[in-house]
Amino acid sequence: MGSLSIWHWLIVLIFLGLPLLFVLRGPPAGVNRFGDTPPSMNFGEAISSFFRNYVNFSGRAGRSEFWYSYLFIVIVAVLMAIVDVVLGNEISSSIWNLAVLLPTLAMTARRLHDINRSGWYQLLAGLFPIGTIALLVWYCKKSDETGSLNEIQRVFR
């Protein structure tokens, strides 16, 4: 019941120090390496883009596409949970969660690309609380306005 052992400090270092290492390091400077700035979308366009880019991990997804898609996922998940309660099983919500797993990972990777960060930063969500908070802040962040190569070339024409 006394002092903390080296193993306790190692666990604290892993769950607090490791995420901070990635969070405090800024995105690469210069042109966004993931393509052109994505267009703003309404709810229907965002859902269409979500399913059209089912496993497309390249490119960029704007805030509107990301948040409208997440809103759709949550609404359907709540409906599936209600159906599961009525039916007395968990099959429909399990099928829904499995069906949207890959497109959600792809959309989240594209959202991180929009702020000029790698999609692998999604793994920070497992390092709670620092990693999860950083990801939420990044999801809300405005698009990387350094632009793409095409936008920069237009300025110099």
Map the helices and strands:
Layout: H1 6-24, H2 43-52, H3 63-87, H4 91-114, H5 130-140, H6 149-155
Helix pairs in contact: 2-3, 3-4
Instruction: Return the average pLDDT rounded to an integer.
Output: 89
Largest sheet: none
Q: Could you name the ranges where pLDDT drops below 50 across 5 or more consecutive residues?
A: 151-156
User: How many individual β-strands?
Assistant: 0
SSE order in H/E notation?
A: HHHHHH
Domain count = 1
Beta content comes to under 5%
Shape: flat
Radius of gyration: 19 Å
Question: What is the first-to-last residue Cα distance?
Answer: 70 Å
Q: State the share of residues found in helices, binned by percent.
A: 55-70%
Q: Output the structural class.
A: mainly alpha
Number of helical segments with 4 or more residues = 6
What keywords describe this structure?
157 residues; mainly alpha; 6 helices; 0% strand; disordered C terminus
